[in-house]
From TrEMBL:
Highest taxon of the lineage: Bacteria
EC nos: 2.7.13.3
Known catalytic reactions: ATP + protein L-histidine = ADP + protein N-phospho-L-histidine
Pfam families, A to Z: HATPase_c
Gene3D superfamilies noted in UniProt: Histidine kinase-like ATPase, C-terminal domain
Class of enzymatic activity (EC top level): transferase
UniProt cross-references to SMART domains, sorted A to Z: HATPase_c
GO molecular function: phosphorelay sensor kinase activity
Segments crossing the lipid bilayer: 26-47, 81-102, 114-129, 161-183, 195-216, 236-263
Protein name from the UniProt record: histidine kinase
All residue ranges annotated as the Histidine kinase domain in the record: 292-500
Keywords: Kinase, Membrane, Phosphoprotein, Transferase, Transmembrane, Transmembrane helix, Two-component regulatory system
Length: 500
């Protein structure tokens, strides 16, 4: 059953990753499973090649006697090839485990030197415990007389424990990265649940793998007194753990959970992925009644337009009437445009989020802002590049432009006005601060500025929709927006976005 489940899950995982190959962590998860299955398969073939007793093998692998007899009689693969395949699969499994954790948590992104350093122990392990290398070492230490066998055994034992320690370190490092990422970084609820699913599935799977292959690396080939002939050893598996039926119950449950995990990867392909994957976050604004409001006001404005057209046609020679009619029609056009803008901002909106650098969104807005002449100067003070976040680029630019326009309007009657943008990182959050040295906002108004249709400005062109829209966009990103202001000193809006 375990073999068939392994084959099924391997095919399922490969198909899922081929379909969604843009996810690096999904690719490493697939590589882990391929290594797991290959190590398991090479071990079974090696035991069958050594004609191990079915009763002993069945206690661990639950292989039917007919299948085992077929493997013993039909599998004719060289022992050296099977040992090399087993060593390669085990070493790569631990390497892919730490790479999976690094890819999932976004650590050391695109740092090839670190990846090469992590790969060096696996390469050394594969080379040292290669059957040809082991036979050569035995010839150097002992020759065919076996006189200095204890020295060779001591060297092998030391190397085995060093590489086993490296396996444990890789697994602990991967587990620590996932747990630390869950505790500190994902501020988005979906990501926290997704990270928890990874921890609950992958960590037990690694523990089960270590229980099955705890004895590797190990030399399985021995020289004999006759040159050209060698003995191959049967490894001493931990039957006490592996013969327990609960081992396989847990193993099969983990397979089912990992199928869910791969499906979650598929979900992430639809929700969170650079270039291809979008997250659809709907901002519910139905309670505002904006559709009803705009429809009713448009009807009244259209009625005013018709009456003005009627008066304009009835008194074509009256210049004062024509002038007033033109002014009224222009005002109606402005009102219709404002209603359309309000309707676009306050209706249900779908955010198409992509994994983007936070500073890129700020740079894009500043480029557009600086191209328009006659505006208040903006000082940009990036303390550091905070990293990557899932952003809807268009909506985020609208938010920043809106905050810049508010700051500019606040400085309209201020001499020496200046706007300052600061970009910094704070415990897994990217913080964008937009400050002005204007008149500030009174305390009683600060509590209401994010309420739709509330405005502190006396302009008839401002309906108090902008900050309410900003608030909803930032909340939909899993972030926060706050204001700090003192009357006579200025105002600072802080946008906090969760980093990935």
């Amino acid at each position: 059953m375990v073999i068939y489940a392994s084959v099924f899950f391997l095919i399922f995982t490969c198909l899922a990753v081929i379909k969604n190959r843009s996810s690096r962590s999904a690719r490493f998860l697939c590589a882990m499973m391929v290594s797991w299955f290959c190590a398991f398969l090479f071990l079974v073939f090696y035991l069958s090649r050594q004609n191990a007793y079915w009763s002993s093998v069945n206690k661990i692998f639950y292989i039917p006697p007919g299948v085992w007899n077929y493997l013993v009689l039909r599998i004719d693969m060289p022992e050296n090839l099977l040992i090399r395949g087993m060593n390669l699969s085990v070493a790569l499994f631990y390497y892919f485990t730490v790479r999976f954790a690094l890819a999932f948590t976004g650590r050391n992104r695109d740092k090839k030197r670190i990846y090469l350093l992590l790969l060096i122990p696996a390469v050394l392990e594969i080379l040292y415990f290669d059957p040809a290398a082991q036979l050569k070492l035995q010839e150097i230490f002992c020759g065919y007389s076996m006189a200095s066998w204890s020295n060779y055994q001591m060297l092998n034992e030391v190397c085995s424990w060093i590489f086993r320690g490296q396996h444990v370190i890789y697994c602990l490092a991967g587990a620590w990265l996932l747990i630390y990422y869950y505790v500190r970084y994902p501020q988005v609820r979906f990501l926290k649940m997704y990270t928890l699913l990874n921890i609950s599935c992958v960590v037990p799977l690694v523990v089960l793998f270590m229980a099955l292959f705890f004895w590797l690396p190990q030399s399985l080939v021995r020289l004999t007194m006759k040159p050209g002939f060698w003995n191959y050893l049967i490894p001493s598996l931990n039957v006490g753990i592996l013969s327990n039926s609960m081992f396989y119950v847990v193993f099969l449950v983990l397979y089912l959970l990992l199928i869910v995990l791969v499906l979650k990867f598929h979900t992430m392909e639809h929700y969170y992925q650079k270039d291809q994957i979008n997250i659809e976050t709907r901002m519910s604004t139905a309670t505002m009644g904006i559709n009803t409001l705009t429809h009713a006001m448009k009807n009244h404005i259209q009625g005013i337009r018709q009456e003005v057209d009627y008066l304009s046609e009835k008194y074509p020679q009256e210049q004062e009437i024509q002038s007033s009619a033109g002014f009224i029609l222009d005002s109606c056009g402005i009102c219709m445009q404002m209603l359309e803008t309000a309707n676009q901002q306050l209706k249900h909106k779908v955010l198409s989020m992509k994994l983007l650098p936070v500073d890129a969104a700020v740079d894009s807005v500043l480029d557009k802002w600086n191209k328009n002449s006659g505006r208040v100067p903006v000082v940009y003070q990036p303390e550091e590049k905070p990293g990557m976040a899932f952003l809807d680029e268009e909506s985020m630019e609208e938010v920043l432009e809106n905050l810049l326009k508010n700051a500019e309007e606040a400085l309209r009657d201020t001499d020496g006005g200046q706007i300052c943008i600061r970009l910094k990182k704070n415990k897994g959050w990217a913080v964008i601060e937009i400050s002005d040295n204007g008149p500030g906002i009174a305390e009683e108004d600060r509590e209401k500025i994010f309420i739709p249709f509330y405005s502190t400005k006396g302009s008839s062109n401002n309906w108090g929709i902008g900050l309410a829209y900003c608030h909803r966009v930032i909340k939909a990103h899993g972030g926060r927006i706050a204001v700090d202001s003192k009357v006579g000193e200025g105002t600072t809006f802080s946008v906090s976005l969760p980093l990935i």
